[in-house]
Amino acid sequence: MRVIRVGTRKSQLARIQTDSVVATLKASYPGLQFEIIAMSTTGDKILDTALSKIGEKSLFTKELEHALEKNEVDLVVHSLKDLPTVLPPGFTIGAICKRENPHDAVVFHPKFVGKTLETLPEKSVVGTSSLRRAAQLQRKFPHLEFRSIPWAWKSEPRTRTSWIWWVCCTIPRLCFAASLKGPS
């Protein structure tokens, strides 16, 4: 039986996404076997710096692209948001899966249950890894304080903030039980 080697990042969210893609492929191609090969990327190794301050492109794709070039994997699974605008020569996007919920969600610290963004106390600390999102929210909620959380995209919250802004599709994938409320 032919084995298809599927490259992915080692992060929990990347593995969940890859497992989903492989399950779909297995259902469509029952005569094939799939081996998942997980690897750390440059972006996975940088835990203490905001991505916007690094300036390098392909932080989450370079190592996987090299594995493809060296024939160590047959295909890779990426979040489309991680791909560079222009793909390297010889590379192509083979498929795009059905899009999950594209909305954002706010996850409050338990002591703020029942609050809204408008009613959070003055100078409440807000964590996000997105400069764009922080700028949009700062304009709408100037009473809040925004801090970059370089690891928020790694799905492993470990900070002291009043709340963290997540992309909705991340929450069920990571099995967070939370009451979701988008921006007002």
From TrEMBL:
Entry keywords, A to Z: Porphyrin biosynthesis, Transferase
Superkingdom to which the source organism belongs: Eukaryota
One GO biological process term: heme biosynthetic process
Entry's transmembrane regions: none
Keyword Transferase among UniProt keywords: yes
Residue ranges occupied by any Porphobilinogen deaminase N-terminal domain in the UniProt entry: 4-149
Any Pfam family: Porphobil_deam
Gene Ontology molecular-function annotations: hydroxymethylbilane synthase activity
One Gene Ontology cellular component: cytoplasm
SUPFAM superfamilies for the chain: Periplasmic binding protein-like II
EC number: 2.5.1.61
Family: Belongs to the HMBS family.
Name of the featured protein: hydroxymethylbilane synthase
Originating species: Pan paniscus (Pygmy chimpanzee)
Organism lineage: Eukaryota, Metazoa, Chordata, Craniata, Vertebrata
